[in-house]
Amino acid sequence: MNYTTLNNGIQMPTVGFGVFQIQDAETTQKVVEEAIATGYRLIDTAQSYGNEETVGKAIKASGVPREELFITTKLWISDMSYEGAKKAFADSLEKLDLDYIDLYLLHQPIGDTFGAWRALEELYAEGKIRAIGVSNFKSDQLANLSLFNKVVPAVNQVELHVFNQKEEERAYMTSKGIQVESWGAFAEGQHDVFNNPILKSMADKYGKSTAQVMLRWQLQLGVVSLSKSANPERVRQNFDIFDFELTTDDMTQIATLDEGLTVFADHHAASTIELLAGFVGKTY
Questions:
Q1: Dihedral in degrees, nearest 10, Cα atoms 215, 217, 220, 224
Q2: Which keywords appear in this protein's UniProt record, sorted alphabetically (predicted)?
Q3: What distance in Å separates the CA atoms of residue 80 and residue 19, rounded to the nearest whole number?
Q4: What is the dihedral of CA 27, 45, 86, 68, to 10 degrees?
């Protein structure tokens, strides 16, 4: 396992296993146990995923010492306030059955993010969280949060894949010591990404899958990547990316795939914010 050092000195694994949209409890526990047995040490869940309790059971069942694992969860917009964050964090900690969280993120830049961030700063100071960060924040939002609060986010988890490479945003985060972490590394399989000719040629050259090429690309960019699968063989395959290296020419070719397009809802469109707010009863 490779590690990166966050801006507070904490070591974070460079590849992780995510559990978004894996809601069946039996399947979730099985694949998280498989991921840990394979060698994953970063496990990423969230309050809104509805599977923190099952992830906690898998962590306990794995038999791996707690200090060897790096557990991430996230605060949902329904609790995006100072008091809401305090309560939601306590609930997540209880569901995960842990004494502390390694990384706690504001899941969306929606609601009272400043109030919530102050709560995270206090929990961090108390040692209940080893690092705090955000998800889906753009550069201006990162700057605003950082400049008007005590703690600069350690991580920003964003949609990042070959079709949406965020070169300028990555450069800004790097300049401020904020670790880039990706979600949606495989672009949800859209645009026939697994059969893309450029990626296929590289996969054939190295005897790897296109998924492994995409994860290796992120690793070489300095991006912490998350992958997800309910298939044990693919869980193992997605971890097997440390025995080959893409060339400079390979990286240049992959850069040509960037279209700056989201394959999900644009988290910064007013319509998306209104939609998400509507889920928690906030409407005009």
A1: -40
A2: NADP, Oxidoreductase
A3: 22
A4: 100
CA distances from 18 to 45, 55, 71, 80 (A): 6, 10, 10, 22
Q: Give DSSP secondary structure letters for the chain.
A: --EEE-TTS-EEESEEEE-TT---HHHHHHHHHHHHHHT--EEE--GGGT-HHHHHHHHHHH---GGG-EEEEEE-GGG-SHHHHHHHHHHHHHHHT-S-EEEEEE-SS-S-HHHHHHHHHHHHHTTSEEEEEEES--HHHHHHHHHTSSS--SEEEEE-BTTB--HHHHHHHHHTTPEEEEE-TTGGGGGGGGG-HHHHHHHHHHT--HHHHHHHHHHHHT-EEEE--S-HHHHHHHH--SS----HHHHHHHHTT-----SS--TTSHHHHHHHHHHTT---
Q: In the structure encoding, which two tokens stand for residue 9, read together?
A: 């000195």
Asked if 82 is an active-site residue, the reply is no
pTM exceeding the 0.85 threshold for the entire prediction: yes
Residue recorded with tokens 């997540």: 92
Structural domains in the chain, CATH included, are 12-279 (3.20.20.100)
35-89 confidence digits (pLDDT tens)? 999 999 999 999 999 999 999 999 999 999 999 999 999 999 999 999 999 999 9
From the list 157, 153, 159, the residue with the least C-alpha distance to 177 is 153
The identity of residue 99, as a single letter, is: D
